[in-house]
Amino acid sequence: MTRVIAVANQKGGAGKSTVTVNLAVALGQAGKRVLVVDADPQFDSTAMLGCAPEDAAHTIADVFLGEAEAAAALRTAVAPAVDLLAGDARMADVELTLVSQVRREEFLAEALREVLPAYDYLLIDCPPNLGLLTVNAFVAADEVLIPISMIDRNAYKGAATLLSTLETLRSRRVSVETLGLLRNNVDARRNTFQTLDDALSALGAPVLSAQIPMRSGFHDATTEGIPLMLRRPDTREAEAFRELATEIDGGSVPLVVPDSADGAITATRRATPAEVA
Ligand SMILES: Nc1ncnc2c1ncn2[C@@H]1O[C@H](COP(=O)(O)OP(=O)(O)OP(=O)(O)O)[C@@H](O)[C@H]1O
Ligand SMILES: [Mg+2]
What is the pTM of this model? Predict the structure, then answer.
């Protein structure tokens, strides 16, 4: 069964696009077949994968406009085992035209249905709002992954709003789970970290064990159009994405060895059913 994961947070700069592309590469390296769907008119994840909307005949906009089937619009092997449905600035206009259409929230789910069987994972990069494109992603998705920038002291407020939006959708019979809050931009030495971490724990949503450290290499990889996972695979931050992929794919939980010198995560094991529950 394909798992469709929307990567969402209406706060700008939380790390949605960075997480989408690096998690995609990590899952690809773990032997999974992955499709990145760039639903953001800013098309950052497309650029981070070294692509541009105009490099090929079609983008996600053509799919929404009924001018191409999703299968015909895919760009294959933009990274090992990773395909891309490229983003497009025209999606801003597409979103406006969707408003007046019947079943306007189901458009993306319908369009992606035919390509699902070819993949283990679809990762949908969402725009920084809770508008119709994001709602389309939630309807298409089974799960939502919520990156949180740990240097933003108010990030828990945005997360609370997002969680309540998901609750509203579930009350309208949209089946979408919260995969978890993902702590990004982690610098545990900052005094904002612990306060925010406590506030996130109190939201009642799962907080993933994997944490993505704050590292300038993510930005460099963006300007180069090569995800950090490919550009600097030997770094701690690349390892963090491998841990995230393992946690998501295998249900394994990090085993923190308490007496290790720096408190670092030193091993992983398969989670027991009780832990997963
Ligand atoms: N862990 C990190 N360490 C350092 N920089 C990071 C990290 N994660 C993201 N960034 C940087 O922060 C900026 C915003 O990240 P990104 O574009 O992934 O966020 P976003 O949530 O997709 O933003 P938007 O809301 O605009 O779509 C980028 O310059 C990116 O390189
Ligand atoms: Mg983005």
Answer: 0.91
